[in-house]
Amino acid sequence: MTTGPGFLLPDRPVASLDDWLALGGGDGLNAAKRLGQEGTIDELRASGLRGRGGGGFPTGAKWAGVAAGRGTHRYVVCNAAEGEPGTFKDRSLMRANPYQLVEGVAIAAFAIGATEAFIGLKASFSEETDRLQRAMVELAAAGLVGDVPIRLVPGPEEYLLGEEKALLEVIEGKDPLPRLLPPYLHGLFSTAPQMGWIPAAAEPGHTEPHESNPTLVNNAETLSNVPWILARGPEWFRTMGTPSSPGTVVATVVGDVVRPVVAEVEMGTRLSALLNGPAGGPLPGRTWKAIFSGVANPVVDPSRFNLPMTYEDFSAHGTGLGAAGFIVYDDSACMVNVARIFSRFLAVESCGQCPPCKLGSGEITDRLERIEGGTGTDDDIGAIGSWLGKVTDGARCYLATEERDVVSSILRCYPEEFAEHLETGRCPRPRDLLVPKVVELSDGRVTYDESQARKRPDWTYAPA
Ligand SMILES: Cc1cc2nc3c(=O)[nH]c(=O)nc-3n(C[C@H](O)[C@H](O)[C@H](O)COP(=O)(O)O)c2cc1C
Ligand code: SF4
Predict the structure, then answer these.
(1) DSSP-assigned letters across all residues of 67-81
(2) How many CB atoms lie within 10 A of CB 344?
(3) pTM for the full model?
(4) Does residue 271 have a pLDDT over 50?
């Protein structure tokens, strides 16, 4: 039986209910029922588990907040949308062991007293959908999913599907446009106004017209950890990782490495050990220049390649662990081009509800394109700096902050590359780069979504 790193992502997939039962499947839900709702949340708190969707928020505190929310209806949402460039860990987990995820959802639903639970993922994740569906049927037949109904919700390709406030909209049958308030304040199917005093009818089964239906949203990896913690206890979980970041992390590495990989390692493992070990090191004759955790965090430059992979170490060095999906660039890459493709991705995916986000990220992308193409001027650098100062104004979601943080960090860390373009009027490191939105990763081979380069800011696609 696996007891250390590797418990979440086993070498051999957990392909049937019998496989899951042999690993102790069902023990977590049984332990939760024994402990009761509060006891289960206390156990989660004691484990120190933090959300693996990008923010690292303490999971026990999140559950306690939603459980304490006002009203008759509460919901659980598993965020399995995995849209961050450079990540493939949630899809790998759903393929390797869908049972742990479904049991984690069932435990969360029990603990917060949910009416219903949802697993939101992209309609294009067909293998993951099949595996989850099979696991749900088998677990239900064996009486191992508890009493709360769980439904799979297929969603669109958009990056914003994974943003929690947009995911709720999609579960309600709408487009992935982030709502104003967070899920614990304005949850699923709430008829309460988000702002102002609009008269609203009571929802069926509710006693008051303005109930907010507090909703718990957790990432797929976060919830996959839950049955193990309940079955084996918080002390077991804390034998791995660091006091502030216990457990393991399922990391992805793509880009300029010998072997793109998804690997489960103990929290606190050095980034360089992941890159030189499972990812096989740099390509022959090359040296690494920049590493990004998705497109959501400031660049990790060579002086920080040895950072321990914990929330506290990454934040102390001015960046974030994010969803631990690492995008690696070596000395053959042009950092102006990297800034351009990241900014373009965010500008295209921005929904436009907040004008400074859509207009600013678009303008920054255009200026970066000019600089990269050799026709840029100092004015372009000035305009980029000015937009970076206001792109987050009035932002409903974190996408605008991603644009600000990632682009400004590249400008700060690689100023000489921008100067080279302006002075010589050409790119000294011409090389085609695709934003690494991963659509497949296995056996050391990665495939990126090539259609992303054709996606337009109105979410239509230019002809191939
Ligand atoms: C633009 C954007 C995209 C996101 N995409 C994802 C995603 O694909 N999967 C995910 O779990 N979280 C994603 N997040 C974070 C979620 O909003 C949310 O914080 C997370 O699901 C909470 O789960 P956790 O507490 O378990 O980490 C995204 C956030 C933003 C701003
Ligand atoms: S910040 Fe950007 S992506 Fe987020 S809601 Fe506003 S416009 Fe849309």
Answers:
(1) HT-SSS--EEEEE--
(2) 22
(3) 0.97
(4) yes
Quote the ligand 1 centre to 141 CA distance (angstroms). 31
What is the residue with the minimal CA distance to atom 4 of ligand 2? 397
Q: 118 or 3, which is more confident?
A: 118
Chain segment 305-337, per-residue pLDDT in tens: 999 999 999 999 999 999 999 999 999 999 999
Nearest CA to ligand 2 atom 6: 354
- Which atom number of ligand 2 is nearest to the Cα of residue 163? 4
- What is the C-alpha separation between 212 and 188, in angstroms, rounded? 8
Ligand 2 centre distance from Cα of residue 194 (Å): 17
258 by Cβ neighbours in 10 Å (0-12 / 13-18 / 19+) ranks as middle
Atom of ligand 1 nearest to the CA of 79: 11
Report how far ligand 2's centroid is from the alpha carbon of 397 (Å).
5
Kind of pairing between the strands at 248-255 and 325-330 = parallel
| Residues 452 and 434: beta-carbon distance below 8 Å | yes
In the chain, pLDDT over 70 holds for what percent of residues? 97
Least distant ligand from the CA of 351: 2
Alpha-carbon distance of 319 to 445, in angstroms, equals 28
* Three-class DSSP category at 445: strand
**Both tokens of residue 247?**
């457990």
β strands within 36-192, DSSP E: 75-79, 116-122, 150-155
